[in-house]
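USER:
Working in pairs, take the chain set out below, taking as long as you need, and write a paragraph about the fold.
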Amino acid sequence: MTIAQNPLSVEVTLPREDVALVRVEGYLDVDTATEFQHHLANQLHHGRRHFVLDVSEVPFMDSSGMNIILRIYQETRRNGGSVHVLSPTPPVQRVLDLTGVSITVPVSGSFDEALALIDEQVAAQAAEG
């Protein structure tokens, strides 16, 4: 499938200064992964530490998309941040489960659930000093 047949749509909103909600729609594969990566890198550049990746409208994801999720996870962890995958479709959940990514990167059913996990992490980091 070509990009023209399955364009990727990425919409970024900022529910809080340090949190980027990234809504992804379309196929997340070798043809579209670079665009996804650019959006995430831009948010990192602007100081976002926590990412909620809404993939509820992603019917297919290959290893390219998975690798970008892992890279942004590693980058945010170095800076005390986090990545949360939100409402993956069954095919995307399967890729996350088969590769073990869902063990490392939290998967949430709702934005409020992901935000609560972020708040817990921030509180734990503050308590550590």
Q: What stands out?
A: The chain has a mean pLDDT of 92.
